Amino acid sequence: MTLWTSAEAAAATGGQTGDWVATGVSIDTRTIQPGDLFVALRDVRDGHEFVAQALEKGAAAALVSHVPDGVSPDRLLIVKDVLQGLEALGVAARARCKGRVAAITGSVGKTSTKEMLRTVLERQGKCHAAEASYNNHWGVPLTLARMPADTDYAIIEIGMSNPGEIAPLSRMVRPHVAMVTTVAAAHLASFDSLAGIATEKAAIIDGLEPGGVAVLNADIETSSILRDHADARAARQLLFGETAPDWTLRDVRLNGDVTVIRATGAGQDYLFKLSVAGRHFATNAVGVLAVVDALGADPVTAALDMALWVPPAGRGTRETIVIDEATDGESLALLDDSFNANPTSLTAALEVLAAAQPVDNVGRVVKGRRIAILGDMLELGGQEVQMHRDVATNAYLQELDLVHCVGPLMHHLWQALPDEQRGQWAQTASELAARTTGLVDCGDVVLVKGSKGSKVSLVVDAIRKLGHRRPLEE
């Protein structure tokens, strides 16, 4: 299916080009598909170095700012600036799309909520959503540039690291519905306070189309900042959460490996489940129903389809690691939450672990244990040491049997732990991964949680190598 003709792309970007047709847009020659338009962005390396390779792999053309050595200009779309060219494609794609568009931001849960919304909307129409966590200054225009013209529902994730980043991206997206999942202590290194983060998150409302809807978390302490911003922009508001008047989370039950949710909204009562445990997932699920309703889709059908969603890799996925196929019960449960961490998301993950049920009499230790392996929480600003140390007083942490720690910041937690809970500490994830056989045992439920930069995913990989993976539903 044609995504861009050369004439359309040239008109959008003001560039010069030959005659070609693109069926996709790519920024990476490692994953490029035949027919893609390759965008030669400058990052760690200059994308122009890979144009010849992209064309050899079947790219329809390449978006460039100059002609690379040895490349014919016939299959090039030449613009003054490649990123600005990609942004222009995104703006043009949004302009031609007649479907309904939702934008999502938040300190925690953006990607999981985006995928939850994708799961339910793709059963009600042609749905387009951001890949992975493509939510920054190039990820947002790339997602838009990839959007087919006949899309019914589009879901765009918008993130930030510094002040002033969200508003221009939201104006590019022009959403009909803008959702803020939550505001938490993330990226505090770039902000003076939680209120500053809330103000930046609220800027997603700035790009709303006339008559647009802001779907906002009513339970957080900075909710008033979000609501005031929506009032100032004359946006209609739908509030979600336990204290919300519009979409109310009435009850949450963590029942083994599922979450059972009772909620009300839009004059309806809802009873549905998620195929994963987590109170934070439940709150966002109710927010998703609010977004579905605001988009004009069917929230009742969406609630029924919610059980089909599972978290993306590294964001709370649960799996069974079978150590010995020949012996019944020789396995452990692994909660992989290794992609991101801050105090709010850590509390949510610890609640899930505290509610999990280990299995006794199957391992060397005999008693199954709840074990947390925690890596550094990054970008927390001047209070980062105290924030790590304070985890020792977390109510859910008290329910755990053992806590292993990774990194210089988590060393402060490790020192604050009581002797009976204090496991091993290592400066780096690779060091701890090398000790995996002594960290966990059959019958254990093991949470691995940390910021991506802490590289605790190496520990996840090491645990998986103790046996073989089996999806939980098996």
Detailed description of the structure:
- The chain is an alpha/beta fold and 474 residues long.
- The chain folds into three domains: 4-81, Udp-n-acetylmuramoylalanyl-d-glutamate--2,6- Diaminopimelate Ligase, Chain: A, domain 1 (3-Layer(aba) Sandwich); 97-308, UDP-N-acetylmuramoyl-L-alanine:D-glutamate ligase; 317-471, Protein-Tyrosine Phosphatase, Chain A, CATH 3.90.190.
- 29% of the residues lie in helices and 23% in strands.
- It has 15 helices and 22 strands.
- Strands 8-9-7-10-11-12-13-14-15 form a nine-stranded mixed β-sheet, sandwiched between helices. It has a seven-stranded mixed β-sheet with strand order 20-19-18-21-17-16-22, sandwiched between helices.
- Helix 12 links the parallel strand 18 (370-375) and strand 19 (402-406).
- The radius of gyration is 24 Å and the shape is globular.
- This is UDP-N-acetylmuramoyl-tripeptide--D-alanyl-D-alanine ligase.
- InterPro entries: Mur-like_cat_sf (IPR036565), Mur_ligase_C (IPR004101), Mur_ligase_C_dom_sf (IPR036615), Mur_ligase_cen (IPR013221), Mur_ligase_N (IPR000713), MurCDEF_CellWall_CoF430Synth (IPR051046), MurE/MurF_N (IPR035911), UDP-N-AcMur_synth (IPR005863).
- One of its GO terms (biological process) is peptidoglycan biosynthetic process.
In short:
The chain is of the alpha/beta class and 474 residues long.
